[in-house]
Structure formats: structure tokens, C-alpha cells
């Protein structure tokens, strides 16, 4: 359901892009300003978080062959705040309302149910280059640092279940489609490379997992420049 909703959101933004693409042939003075005098901007909208977890799990220091975890996709409200430090270069910080994710046993552990629940999510600080020569349509690419911020954990199969916060690298690409000097729509994609550790106790024995999350975050909504 989340993937279908994200696809609908992306399709809506792409449809708007097609509608406004004809404006690119108009005289440049009739277009929305490329950057204008507004160095600050906000991206506000819905984000989908799609994790691709790979885990190494052990109990009492003994690895469990074929053990894995799965984490369902999540949607949340997210905001990116940015500032142009040069005509085509901007820096930004992004984050959202932290969703609650259920970590379920998979692989050779399938059927054991949820290992635990975690409320948290990624935040990112990035620098990006904006291609401002295309008028109203303004794509960009960038990279930076991503952090997994954990607010709370909840026991399920494991007791005293805990997830460690972590830091990694993030890549970014997207576009703004400006409707006037201040307002527009946007689509943004971030790919994080981040790993964390979880700990707890299974029937009194210490359990540990090393999990590579490597999330993809798709974010779309309204742009406001000021």
C-alpha cells in the first residue's frame, strides 16, 4: 500500500513537470526566477522510508546461520530546510516525524514474530549543486551525512531490546519545479548507507545483531523560497 501511495505521489509530481515543461520554451524573462533573491527554502511533504536490511545475528556469541530481519516500509511527514551559499550551491538539513518500525524475524528465524519495535528514523545534512539554467525546472544532485536517531525501543521477542544510533553517508538527487518566485513543487530521493547494532536477551541469553539498513527516502510536496 505504501509503495502504491508513493508511486501515486511521484506520478502526480511528474505530471506537473510535464505540464510546466512547455514553459521552458518561453522567453527567459517570462519564466519563474531561477534562484531569485530568496536564499532560504523549505521542502514540506510526505516521505516514504524504504529499508533494505541485511543482518548478522548471534545468540550467546554464536552466529545463527541464515538469520535475517525485515522492516516494513513507512510513511511520515518530513521537512527539508536549505540555504543557497552560492548561486548554484545549497546546503540543507532534513528530517521527519519519527515513525515506529517493527523489526521482524526472517530467514531461518521466520515464524518467531517481531524481535522488537523502534521509534526513530534518519536525518540528513547535505550539500548539493542545482542546475539553474533550465528555468522553472531545477534539478540537483548532492551528498552528505545521514544519522539514525533513535527515540525509543520496545520489547517483543527480545527483552531489554535496544537499538544503537549510527552515522553514515547519504546521496541525494531531485528537482524543484517553480510555479513563481516563491512557490513550487519538488521530488527528492536520498539513498543512505548506514548500519546499526541491536541488543537484547532471548530466554536470558544475550542476543546481538549487526544490521545494514541502507534506506531509500522518497520525499515529495511543496517548495517555498524566502
Automatic annotation (TrEMBL):
It holds the Pfam family OmpW. Keywords: Signal. InterPro entries: OMP/PagP_B-barrel, OMPW. Residues 1-21 form the signal peptide. This is Outer membrane protein. The keyword Signal applies. Belongs to the OmpW/AlkL family. The lineage of its organism: Bacteria, Pseudomonadati, Pseudomonadota, Alphaproteobacteria, Hyphomicrobiales. One of its GO terms (biological process) is transmembrane transport. One of its GO terms (cellular component) is outer membrane.
Amino acid at each position: 500500500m505504501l509503495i502504491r501511495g508513493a508511486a501515486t505521489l511521484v506520478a502526480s509530481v511528474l505530471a506537473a513537470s510535464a505540464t510546466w515543461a512547455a514553459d521552458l520554451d518561453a522567453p527567459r524573462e517570462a519564466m519563474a526566477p531561477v534562484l531569485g533573491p530568496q536564499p532560504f527554502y523549505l521542502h514540506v511533504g510526505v516521505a516514504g522510508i524504504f529499508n533494505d536490511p541485511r543482518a548478522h545475528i548471534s545468540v550467546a556469541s554464536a552466529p545463527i546461520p541464515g538469520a535475517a530481519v525485515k522492516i516494513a516500509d513507512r510513511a511520515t511527514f518530513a521537512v527539508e530546510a536549505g540555504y543557497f551559499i552560492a548561486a548554484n550551491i545549497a546546503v540543507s538539513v532534513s528530517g521527519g516525524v519519527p515513525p515506529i518500525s517493527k523489526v521482524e524475524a526472517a530467514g531461518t528465524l521466520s515464524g518467531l514474530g517481531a524481535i522488537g519495535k523502534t521509534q526513530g528514523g534518519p536525518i540528513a545534512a547535505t550539500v548539493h549543486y542545482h542546475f539553474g539554467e533550465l528555468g522553472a525546472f531545477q534539478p540537483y544532485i548532492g551528498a552528505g551525512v545521514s544519522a539514525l536517531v533513535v527515540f525509543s525501543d520496545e520489547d517483543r521477542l527480545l527483552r531489554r531490546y535496544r537499538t544503537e544510533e549510527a552515522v553514515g553517508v547519504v546521496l541525494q538527487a531531485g528537482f524543484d519545479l517553480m510555479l513563481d518566485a516563491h512557490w513550487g513543487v519538488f521530488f527528492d530521493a536520498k539513498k543512505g548507507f548506514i548500519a546499526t547494532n541491536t541488543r537484547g536477551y532471548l530466554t536470558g541469553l544475550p542476543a546481538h545483531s549487526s544490521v545494514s539498513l541502507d534506506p531509500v527516502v522518497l520525499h515529495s510536496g511543496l517548495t517555498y523560497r524566502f
